[in-house]
Amino acid sequence: MSRRFRNSVQLSPIIIAFITTVVLMAILVFGALISMKIYKRIDLTITKRHSLSEQTIKALGALREDIKAVGFYTPAHNEKEKTVSLLKLFSDTSERFNFEIVNPERNPGRTRRYGKIVTGTVVVESGVRWEKVNKPDETSLLNAILRISHEEKKNIFFIQGHGEKDPEDEGTSGLRRAHYVLDSLGYNIFGLNLIKTSKVPPEANITVIAGPKKDFFIEELKGLEFYLNEGGALLVLVDPHNLPNFSLFIRSLGVVLGRGVIVDKSKRLSGSDMVVTIVDQYSTHEIAGEVEAVSLFPLSRSVEPMGLKNPDIALSPIARTDDAAWEETDIAALFGRGIAEYDDLNDRRGPVTIALAGEFRSTGARFVIIGDSDFATNAYFDQGANGDIFVNSVLWLNREKDLIASRPIDREFYPIVLTNQQLTFLFWIVVVLLPAATLVTGVLVIRRVRWRG
Hints:
A hairpin with a 2-residue loop joins strand 3 and strand 4 (about 130-135). This protein is globular. Strands 6-5-7-8-20-19-16-13 form an eight-stranded mixed β-sheet. The protein has helices at about 5-35, 55-60, 80-95, 110, 140-150, 175-185, 195, 220-230, 245-250, 330-335, 385-395, 420-450, and strands spanning about 65-70, 95-100, 120-125, 130-135, 155-160, 185-195, 205-210, 235, 255, 260-265, 265-270, 275-280, 280, 295, 305, 315-320, 325-330, 350, 355-360, 365-370, 415-420. With about 450 residues, the chain is of the alpha/beta class. The relative contact order is 0.11.
């Protein structure tokens, strides 16, 4: 064998290693290029802690102008990485949203433009409009985006004079939390006493009746009827009170208000009683189409379509109870003695409609009727899907379907709904079997020690 041939044979492993390295590098580069084009992030946490809500995604997708966020953080700020991660989720969702992080200590000129800036603040701006967010999270950033991207304010009037819940009340039974959310969505909130004016102002985009305790006068109801005839939008939250005039007005909309209180013994939120209705059955209506969490109705009545339908009114259920629930009409036994038993003659068997929406084909007027007002109060608004149902109802009434979706969730609240069987099972395991097993084990150990002694 010639020397030249032997050298070529000795070099072949080097050549093979080189070729292998080149191929491996090509595969890595190709994979990197693919990952830049095809990127999918999967959030496996039960509360979707690392994902944006459907409402945020829809709002970002509906942006018609560019939005920029400027975060003012020093390098060592403990919230910087959390905010950057959140802003990146926003920018990955919409090409119209971008952000930058600025060190306020090294860029005093940038901070001066927005007045006094505290480290940890994010400024959201579009054109000449801007707004500061002092404690940036998904909800506050979304609200700032909605406010600066909607120049025109919308008007909501809350009816007063019949014991309705107050949007200014910060107590547990008030609606201040709902007021805050509506304000963040660009709505002006006003009170309206129909006894004084007898009609709804024409500038009212939506009128809300939130839990009246006293009946309406006929003239007030005529004002509401005229408002709907002109294409208005009405949100009604009605509790189990006897309101004859108001019930007749609701019947004119093709809806019958139940005479009792909805009871559900099969599902319980831990610590609640049987009149707190747990709802997890929703229709495909726009208001509930994106809702997945349960909603809680502390004291509710049914709102059912009339048997004789009005051809001019299209009614659609939003939420219903399950089969095990019913509407209890023996109120004295329910609240006086704590007894509730289904009566075939007087009670309505489930599933019971607890919320529905309607639209007049002739005028385009819309209305939503929900058989409870407590679900929207400060005590319950952020629990489960309650806030979603309320806000989505407002957005649907105002024909803002691009924003209808599940709101950013409360990451700390995740309700546990238990059936009677599950409660009984937990009782036997936790209260009976585990202590008994501990006691038996202790007795056996003591006897064994004594036997050995």
